[in-house]
Specification:
This protein is an alpha+beta fold and 97 residues long. The protein contains 3 helices and 4 strands, in the order ββββααα. A hairpin with a 5-residue loop joins β1 and β2.
């Protein structure tokens, strides 16, 4: 299972444990990944994503899942999220017209 956020692209980072004697051993900094189900108001469906805790807070801050996904950059999102963004923007344009 990949430890990577599907909405923000946050992944595992690497660093060193440094002891008192300055001995350095490699370690991993893993993001707090949770499986979350978001419902889209525009499409009327539910979607499940693996998201880190910070991204969950950002979705709430931006006014919901639809608003967040439309503002998010394509470069950091997963392929699944990119396809969903296209669907949501298409539905939104259809409802405006």
């Amino acid at each position: 299972m990949s430890r990577k956020c599907e909405l923000t692209g946050v992944a595992v980072q690497f660093g060193n444990n440094v002891s008192h004697s300055q001995r350095k051993t490699r370690r991993r900094f893993e993001p707090n990944i949770k499986s979350v189900t978001y419902s889209s108001d525009i499409t009327g469906q539910k979607y499940t994503f693996k998201v880190n805790a910070q991204a969950m807070r950002t979705v709430d801050k931006n006014g919901g899942f639809d608003a967040y996904i439309l503002k998010a950059k394509d470069t950091v999102m997963s392929e699944k999220a990119k396809k969903l963004k296209k669907q949501i923007s298409k539905k939104q344009k259809e409802s405006m017209a």
